[in-house]
Specification:
This protein has 513 residues and is α/β, with parallel strands linked by helices. It has 15 helices and 19 strands. The longest helix is centred in the N-terminal third of the chain and has 25 residues, at 120-144.
Length: 513
C-alpha cells in the first residue's frame, strides 16, 4: 500500500483518488478551498440554484467507466443523467433560427437544410465525416493514453483537407485553420459561425485553432449532450461521495506550500498554517502546472523537449464571464435547454477575446452568448420562476481588469442585452443577478487569469497539448484540465484515469486496451 497525496479536489484529482484507493493505496486529498469539485461550483440564493461551471456533459462514458471501476453502483444510480433534446437552438444576427436535435445525424442535416437552404446539411455532414477520421486518428494518443515522451507526431494536424485548386493561395505553406475550413467547406456565414462557436466555447480562437478542432462538434453530435438533474454540481458530489466510500481522506481549507523531495524523488507535502509535513510515496498535483516550480523550490519537473504549461495570466487561454439570472415568470413549454446567440461582429469579438486588430479586452457590443435554461425544479423556488445562466468567452483577467466592478457590470449588461434575442422580455423579468468573472475564477481555482483550459488538440506544432501526467520528477504526477489531455469534464476525468494507471501499472503503461 502506497501513500498518495493529492493536491486539489477538482474532478481530475478526485477521479485519480477514487481509482487509486480502489487499487489499495492510502489516498489523502488536500484542498485549499472550502469544498470539492473545482470548476463545478454552485451558487444558491432565494430558492434559486445555478451551476457556476460547465452546464452540460459530453462523453459521459468517461464517468460511467469511473463508477464501474470504483464501486458496485453505476453512475446512473448515483445521479439522474438525461439527454438534452434539442441539443441547442442557435440564433444568428440576421434573425435565422436553427434548432439542432441531440445525437441525430439525419435530424441535424434536415435542420440545417431547413434553416440555411438545401445542400447545407450535406456540406456539414461531409465536414463532420472528416472530423470523424480526425477523431479516429487522435482518440488514443490525445485522450485514452498518457502523452508519449516523443510527441512529435502530434505536432501535425491529421484533419484530411480535401484537395481543391487554388486552395490557400493567400496562406500557402501553412496548415489549415478551423476558420479556413469553415469558410471553404461551409461557405454560408451562419454555418461558419455555427462551426466556429464550438471552438470559441472551448476557449479556442478559430483563426488559429487547427482544422482538427472539427472534432468538437463531431463529439457533441455523435455522443450527445447530457444534463445531471439538480445541476452539474451533483456530478461533483457523486464523485466526492464515491471517493469517501473508498476511504479517501479530504482536508479542506488546507493550502499546500511545498512538495518535498529526497535524492530527486518526491517524499511528501508541506502544508500551511503550521500543520505538520505529510509523508507520501507519490503526489498527484491537480493544480495549474505553472505553480509547481514554486512548490519545489524552483526545480522544474520538465526537461528539454517536454510539453510545458500554457502562458501566463495575460497571454494564456481566455476566461469565461457568467451571469446568473433569477427570473420571474415560468419557463415556457418547449424551451430549449441551451440557446447560442451569435455575435453580430465575429471579427470584433475574436479580436476582443484573443487579440488581433486591437489588444484583447476591447468591448464587444454583442458577444456570442450561451443561454442555459434547464427544465429542473431543483434550480428554482417554484414553477412561477426560472433560473437562467448566461456565459461568454472573454479575455482573461490581466488582459482585462475584471476586478473592476464597473468593467464587470458593463460586460454583464452586454450579455443580458444579447440574451434578449433568446428570451423575449428578459430585462423585465430579472429579479436579481450575480456576475462571475475571470477574476473570481482565478481567486477560487488558482488558474492564472481565471483562464479555462481548452481540450488538447493535435496540430499547430503542439501548442494545444498539455503537460504529460508523468513528470520528470519521480513520484510527481499531474491531473486535471491543465494536464494531458486538457480541459473539459470528460478530459479531466480521463486525466485521473491516466494518472491512476501510471501509478498502479508503472511508467510504461500505455492506457487500457
Amino acid at each position: 500500500m502506497a501513500r498518495i497525496a493529492v493536491i486539489g479536489a477538482g474532478m481530475g484529482a478526485m477521479a485519480a483518488a477514487a481509482r487509486l484507493a480502489v487499487a489499495g493505496h492510502r489516498v489523502a486529498v488536500y484542498e485549499r478551498g472550502p469544498t470539492h469539485g473545482g470548476a463545478l461550483g454552485r451558487f444558491e440564493r432565494d430558492g434559486f440554484a445555478f451551476d457556476t461551471g460547465p452546464g452540460l456533459l459530453h462523453l459521459p462514458a468517461v464517468y460511467r467507466d469511473l463508477f464501474v471501476k470504483t464501486g458496485k453502483e453505476p453512475l446512473e444510480r448515483c445521479v439522474e443523467l438525461s439527454q438534452v433534446d434539442p441539443a441547442a437552438d442557435h440564433v444568428f444576427p440576421d434573425g435565422t433560427r436553427l434548432r439542432l436535435p441531440n445525437a441525430s445525424r439525419g435530424g441535424v442535416l434536415a435542420a440545417l437544410d431547413g434553416a440555411f437552404g438545401a445542400g447545407s446539411g450535406e456540406r456539414w455532414s461531409e465536414l463532420v465525416n472528416r472530423a470523424r477520421d480526425t477523431w479516429d486518428a487522435t482518440r488514443r494518443p490525445l485522450l485514452e493514453e498518457p502523452l508519449r515522451a516523443d510527441w512529435s507526431a502530434l505536432r501535425r494536424d491529421p484533419y484530411p483537407v480535401p484537395p481543391r485548386r487554388g486552395w490557400f493561395r493567400r496562406g500557402a505553406g501553412r496548415p489549415a485553420t478551423l476558420a479556413d475550413i469553415a469558410a471553404r467547406e461551409l461557405g454560408d456565414p451562419r454555418a461558419v459561425a455555427l462551426l466556429e462557436s464550438h471552438a470559441l466555447a472551448q476557449g479556442l480562437d478559430p483563426r488559429a485553432a487547427p482544422a482538427g478542432a472539427t472534432v468538437l462538434p463531431y463529439l457533441e453530435q455523435t455522443f450527445g449532450s447530457w444534463y445531471v438533474r439538480g445541476g452539474m454540481r451533483a456530478l461533483a458530489d457523486a464523485v466526492y461521495e464515491r471517493c469517501r466510500a473508498r476511504k479517501v481522506e479530504f482536508s479542506f481549507g488546507t493550502e499546500v506550500t511545498g512538495i518535498t523531495t529526497a535524492d530527486g524523488r518526491v517524499t511528501g507535502l508541506l502544508l500551511g498554517g503550521g500543520a505538520p509535513p505529510v509523508a507520501a510515496d507519490a503526489v498527484v498535483a491537480g493544480v495549474h502546472p505553472a505553480v509547481l516550480p514554486a512548490l519545489t523550490d524552483g526545480a522544474s519537473p520538465w526537461a528539454e523537449g517536454d510539453v510545458r504549461p500554457a502562458g501566463g495570466a495575460a497571454d494564456g487561454p481566455p476566461g469565461r464571464l457568467t451571469v446568473l439570472l433569477a427570473l420571474s415568470g415560468a419557463r415556457p413549454a418547449g424551451t430549449a435547454h441551451r440557446t447560442v446567440v451569435h455575435a453580430g461582429d465575429r471579427d470584433a469579438e475574436l479580436s476582443a477575446v484573443f487579440g488581433g486588430r486591437s489588444a484583447p479586452g476591447a468591448p464587444v457590443g454583442r458577444p456570442t452568448v450561451t443561454v442555459l435554461r434547464p427544465d429542473d425544479p431543483a434550480t428554482r423556488p417554484d414553477e412561477d420562476h426560472e433560473a437562467v445562466t448566461l456565459t461568454a468567452t472573454v479575455a482573461p483577467h490581466g488582459a482585462v481588469d475584471w476586478a473592476d466592478p464597473a468593467v464587470a457590470e458593463a460586460a454583464a449588461d452586454r450579455l443580458v442585452a444579447a440574451a434578449g434575442a433568446a428570451i423575449p422580455g428578459l430585462a423585465g423579468r430579472v429579479l436579481w443577478r450575480e456576475v462571475r468573472t475571470p477574476h473570481d475564477v482565478a481567486a477560487g481555482t488558482g488558474a492564472p487569469g481565471g483562464a479555462v483550459p481548452p481540450p488538447a488538440l493535435a496540430g499547430v506544432d503542439g501548442r494545444l497539448l498539455r503537460p504529460a501526467n508523468l513528470t520528470r520528477t519521480p513520484g510527481l504526477y499531474l491531473a486535471g484540465g491543465w494536464a494531458h489531455p486538457g480541459g473539459g469534464l470528460p478530459h479531466a476525468g480521463m486525466s485521473g484515469a491516466l494518472v491512476a494507471g501510471l501509478i498502479v501499472e508503472g511508467a510504461g503503461w500505455r492506457g487500457s486496451q
